[in-house]
Write a structure and sequence with these properties.
By secondary structure, the protein is an all-beta fold. Helix content is about 0%, strand content about 35%. It has a 3-stranded antiparallel β-sheet with strand order 1-2-3, with no helix packed on it.
Length: about 70
């Protein structure tokens, strides 16, 4: 339960993506504009307590367009 993990998923519509489950936030002393070096999903300080998570959807790669000569 304390580990971080990454999951590949496919939505009902067929869109693939990646979901990352980060660490648990226990400290809410977050200050607006405060900078954190490194992966923000591993930062234990945030506005609300709970698990940090992030996701992204994959997009189909488009072939490069040819430029006319």
């Amino acid at each position: 339960p304390q580990s971080t993990a990454a999951f590949l998923y496919i939505t009902r519509e067929g869109t693939p993506g990646l979901m990352f489950v980060g660490i648990e936030v226990k400290d809410t002393n977050y200050k607006i504009g405060e900078r954190f070096e490194g992966d923000n999903e591993l930062n234990p300080v945030h506005l609300a307590k709970g698990r940090r998570y992030g996701w992204t959807e994959f997009q189909e790669a488009q072939p490069p367009t040819r430029q006319p000569k």
